[in-house]
Amino acid sequence: xxxxxxxxxxxxxxxxxxxxxxxxxxxxxxxxxxxxxxxxxxxxxxxxxxxxxxxxxxxxxxxxxxxxxxxxxxxxxxxxxxxxxxxxxxxxxxxxxxxxxxxxxxxxxxxxxxxxxxxxxxxxxxxxxxxxxxxxxxxxxxxxxxxxxxxxxxxxxxxxxxxxxxxxxxxxxxxxxxxxxxxxxxxxxxxxxxxxxxxxxxxxxxxxxxxxxxxxxxxxxxxxxxxxx
Length: 229
Hints:
Blueprint: E1 3-5, E2 20-25, H1 32-45, E3 50-54, E4 56-57, H2 66-73, H3 82-85, E5 88-89, H4 96-102, H5 109-122, E6 127-135, E7 139-141, E8 144-145, H6 146-153, E9 157-161, H7 167-180, E10 185-193, E11 196-198, H8 199-212, E12 217-221
């Protein structure tokens, strides 16, 4: 299959001067955590303080915590107390609302918002990256989804998308949902993409950029992560 260089790279600089972002995905397992690490590392290299927060973590029986992965990629991120870095963690690999049910626990969304507010208060100069779980419509509790959290945090969203087939539909629907709640989209990042793209992936990026009219729409290059990441 024909390959070509990607003409568009996701611009971290274009996100500023905003001081916080909600990192969501066009679906699950699209590379949100790697994207968060890359964004954090790029911001630190540009001289910014960066704090990373995982709103809810599930599946800890199967995976390493995302907070640890981001720290491997960008060790310079501010070291936060666990109760702020990740207010809720679950062993069960499922949507947060069901993981909590399986473990006989309750999630209080206000606690996540308070953690974010505390980080902002303690580190007023830092750029705060808040990573959700799965896609934007994933329930945190039955009546409160990731999109509700993004709205309550009152920060722009960064949509992380997979470069695989189907990404046009998933990415555009995610952007449409965010815009319907009047949540600005700071950019669409295709995570862990090789610089040489096949023609389908290349066209997908250009098509999403054109239809969404989001200028900051491009690839995050594949990065070499330290062991365990």
